[in-house]
Amino acid sequence: MATRTLAVVSAGLSNPSSTRLLADRLTSAVVAALRSRGDDATVETVELREHARDLADNLLTGFPNSSLRGAIDTVTGADGLIAVTPIFSASYSGLFKTFFDVLDKDALTGKPVLLAATAGTARHSLALDHALRPLFAYLRAVAVPTGVFAASEDWAGGGGVDSALADRIERAAGELADLVAGRPAGARPVDPFADPTPFEELLRRTGG
């Protein structure tokens, strides 16, 4: 049995928040899906609201402090990522975008990611496809086919979810589990420039 690491990024601003509630639901579903595939899982959650000032400082100085560095390492070092944001003005929140702005541009290359969002109305559901997917495509992450959007009406009383949202959560969790379980534990993208060929060797090969 392999042990997989999952990082969860929640960009909710309130405490508690529907964004964190959805993140927790997705996390439980992914852990269960991994276990059904014979893998164990460890989970680390990054609450971005706790790093708001750290992120602003990072933008100004170009360097993360130790607290933000730990959050960045959690996300970049995980085997899989669950990323959940509230939707403001038809797009991800500024806090969410700022966190991914401060990552190295290659940090998420090849990493399986489940994308999810919350908002007050279903009118914002297209933000998953016109805002989140392009962002993670630019970062060269591998987003699962099913994105999960939850509007206020998708939540049942007592913190439950309606059947349609529950189905989306299960489907997306299975897709992420399939991608994570198909990778070697702790896999990292290979940097093609990590071991460059010396210029003299290139000349020798070309007869120069």
Describe the structure.
With 208 residues, the chain is of the alpha/beta class. The protein has one domain (3-205): Flavodoxin domain (Rossmann fold). Helix content is 41%, strand content 20%. Strands 1, 2, 3, 4, 5, 6 and 7 form a 7-stranded mixed β-sheet that branches. Strand 1 (3-10), helix 1 and strand 2 form a beta-alpha-beta unit. The longest helix has 19 residues, at 18-36. It is globular. 36% of the residues are buried.
CATH topology: Rossmann fold
Number of domains: 1
User: Which structural class fits the helix and strand makeup?
Assistant: alpha/beta
Roughly how many Å apart are the termini? Answer: 52 Å
**Strand-residue proportion:** 15-25%
Proportion of helical residues: 40-55%
Rg result: 19 Å
CATH superfamily: Flavodoxin domain
Number of strands: 7
Give the overall form.
globular
Q: List the secondary-structure elements in sequence, H or E.
A: EHEHHEEHEHEEHH
Note the total helix count: 7
The average pLDDT is 89
CATH architecture label name: 3-Layer(aba) Sandwich
Largest sheet: 7 strands, mixed
CATH top level?
Answer: Alpha Beta
Low-confidence stretches: 185-194
